[in-house]
Amino acid sequence: MDAAPPPGGGRSILERPPLARLPDRALRYGLTALAALILALIVYFFFRLVGEAEPAFSKFGVFGFTFTNNWNVNAEEFGALALLIGTLITSAIALLIGVPIAVAAAIYAAELCPLRIRPALTMLIELLAAVPSVVYGLWGIFYLAPRLQPAEQWVADTFSFVPFIGGGTVTIPNYFVTGLVLAIMILPIVSAISREVMTTVPHDHREAALGLGATRWEMIRIAILPYCRSGIVGGAMLGLGRALGETIAVTILIGNSPTLSGHLFQQGYSLAAVIANEFGEAQGLHRSALFAAALVLFVLTLFVNGVARAIVLRSARGQSPQPAAGGSGQLMAETVAGA
Amino acid sequence: MSTPAPGADRLARFAVSPARRRRDRIARGAILAATLIALVPLALIVYYLLKNGLSSWSWDFFTTDPSGNTFFKNVSIGGIKSAILGTLEIVALAAAISVPVGVGVAVWLVEFGKNSWFANTVRFFVDVLTGVPSIVFGLFIYIVLIIGTGSTYAGYKGSLALALLMLPVVIRSAEVILLLIPNALRESALALGAPRWKVIWRIVLPTALPGMLTGVLLAVARAAGETAPLLFTAGETLKTNTDLRQFTNALPVQIYYDVTSPTTAVVDRAWGAALTLVTMILLLNVIARVISRRSRIA
Known about the structure:
Largest sheet of chain A: 2 strands, antiparallel
Strand content of chain B: under 5%
CATH architecture of chain A: Orthogonal Bundle
CATH topology of chain A: MetI-like fold
CATH class of the largest domain in chain B: Mainly Alpha
Oligomer: heterodimer
Structural class of chain B: mainly alpha
Largest sheet of chain B: none
Helix content of chain B: over 70%
CATH architecture of the largest domain in chain B: Orthogonal Bundle
CATH class of chain A: Mainly Alpha
Largest interface: A-B, 83 and 80 residues
């Protein structure tokens, strides 16, 4: 950037005097330092968290802590399996219910709905993201859960021969209601990402499908969905990351009982909920165990989010247009011909 | 129409068969149904918030602190004044911390870091921050500022936890907007002899301002609704205070503790507080949308 000094040794008349270049350098190095500081801060937080979790890990072992089903505060025994399973079950329910609905809403908004109502529809679905998690919890526990209980009891009675679903007494706070509310909470993000990916499908693909005589649904199935598959999967993974880390709504709805009930309609616990619920009074080993639970949760969400971002990025830029176009074009022709 | 055109029988071979037409109609019906199902929870939440929340709204509700009484029928349980003011204070400080830092990092990424390995590392870590569960942010601050200093809860510690939460949203949204600014603008200023800092301060930032404001407001709206990072940083209190070095109440935290109360009147207060919080957040969202529609760099 700096011009080489002219042979005379003095500076060029176009060059700034050294003093005037100072603010530029200061800004550049200052901002670089700021960015480096953020990195350092994240790494520092991580190691401090590991340090606080260390007593629990050294007493029970990393695997012993994570995969033992025994959370007994009074006996100072801490195994987080019931919490981990609770987190996974509720998140899985959220994905099973939330993702198909979110993707369908995205398809409707991107492909089928009249242009006039598209902005309104998009905005309404995004409004779901504006509702705070504590309000979902409030609504869920006082409105949704009590009203759903008879239906859940009916399902449990009718399918009493099915393990995990049937039999037993349905409690008002339970895994299923928690998963259902989480499904509502991840709906906007999954839907927004799916819709965004669908707008990247080239118009030629749609027109080619329609031109070959495909119906609208066939066009969606053979031209849109294959092209967007990895983007939708990535969006779902980001939703999963949200669901795993969601705290307050889950704390209110899951019932906070540290037992592995093994029943869809009974109470449980989750990693995030145990921290929110018990951290206030925790001391010594108990507090360390809660930090360890936070670390397990942190690593779990990091992994899920890392995979999700990689998938979304790859589908955003790596959809190398040439092969994709050729591939799905061929597939398109074959499917229409076969139909 | 009544008399078939010549050759219609040959064209009919290309018509969509009834089975495919039926499948098309069923699939589109299912997609529409799923979309409507997606809208049901929003309608239900808004309906119940209005139904239960409006009845607890009153002058006293907004102008008195919660009294802490949940037992005696003849003593008022109080309103949510300290919670509203506490949320405003905590979130304002969080924005005051995260906006300059976030915009600074975004400017660095776009103007200096570009696609260097270091800039990409920063981007990766910012994305990592986006995925961190909000309660973990609270624990980070707890470890550093409460265990680390041996002190207790304080409002500004809650602000720091929220600032960490807002940071990735501010950085990524500001970066997107800064990238949209045409390079010709920067180049013409540089060609006229302006130094880099002046180009950034007088040309780049003012042009990006409306767009960045949208991102900031959305980040603030998200932070205002967070309970988990505040639980173990800002503390639990009933009193209004204007000193963020003390325990500070906040709306989401107040709602959380009220939800778990067995007293009906306290739960009603939670509904009123929830309606207040949602109204505040929606207002921020609406303002953000209006600003983003006005901004013209996209």
